[in-house]
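Q: For a teaching handout, I want to show students what a protein-ligand complex looks like in token form. Below are the inputs, and the small molecule is aspartic acid. Please produce the holo structure.
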Amino acid sequence: MTQSLLLVSNSTNHGEGYLDHCMGEMLDLLGARRRLAFVPFALFDRERYASRARQRFAQEGLEVRAVGVGRDGVSTLEWADAVFVGGGNTFRLLKTLRDADLLSTVRRRVGEGMIYMGASAGANVAGPTIRTTNDMPIVQLESFDALGLVPFQINPHYFDPPPDTTHMGETREQRLLEYLEENDIPVVGLREGSWIRVEHGHARLGGARPARIFRASATPEEREPGAGLSDRDGGRRVAPRKRMTHGGPAATASAARGTSQSR
Ligand code: ASP
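A: Here is the structure, written as tokens, with aspartic acid included.
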């Protein structure tokens, strides 16, 4: 990883304005760079989304151009010092990027030094695939392969169930352990208010909350803001939260070993 990236869990924190919680980190990463390409493909109304982003970044003195699906998409990415990929539906975002033939341009520009920033769906597509999104597949995709700018998957808006919940559907943790039964790529469960900043080949956690790291055949780990993702000793190994599932506590234990039988 030689590129610079900021992968944010969510674009709006409860009780705050659009991007307020991570704007300081974005500006710090941008430094003197002022030309920002905005990718609005994750929402249906791209124009409205682009104007929202333009207004927000204008407050910080940034010049924003929306990336379009035509040939101008490539020229906007050539012009930009940085790209910000907005959140929404991850399947729609990836499909539109692929249909507009922009995946390779984004990869090339990031390799050339264009900063990549993405929130939520925009963070999901930076990983090898979008298999750990929370979204519904509202459009058909030929492949879940994404940009592959980082070697780990992201699960944004990572959510711990309230201890006294009576909800019987799978927890987020169970769903990610199911992913790891079939795939051997680590997943970062990124709680709201948090992000991963990648620079000089190092990925570091930031923001308000610890992240939960999932690896195949390993107990999930809690990792605090400030820790590196590859610091083997930076994480706190903790047992998965105990709660009744479809199959009761035994199913929770088997899910923790990555062998969930709970459905
Ligand atoms: N729908 C989310 C977003 O806000 C992405 C996700 O939850 O996977 O972009």
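A: Two things your students might notice: Helices lie at 20-30, 46-58, 72-79, 90-99, 103-111, 121-124, 172-182, 249-256. The chain is about 30% helix and 20% strand.
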